[in-house]
Model the fold of this input.
Amino acid sequence: VAHLESLRRTAVGAFRIDDSHTVEALRGQAPGAPLPLIPIREALADFRAFDASPAGLERLRRGQQGVLAELPPPGSIDETALVADTGGRVAAVIEAAARGWRVVRLLAEA
Done:
């Protein structure tokens, strides 16, 4: 018989505890100072990404998910992927669905 007295996670994927910031440190920043944010493309670098045309992204932003049918199919039933504009900026997070892909998050234009 064994038991666990404590557990501390030191990393999740590419994110390491050594790279984190405490709430106190963030609160102590000067007003208006930029927050130490990770760009979404970097944070989700392990996800497959698909480029979409400007017209395709406009349709997606209007709720027309038919553009997702033009993408290659998911590689697994639990796959998450990104849809990017032609400049590489993430426009949407998608996940595998019963028939292809579905939008999980649609991001505002920068």
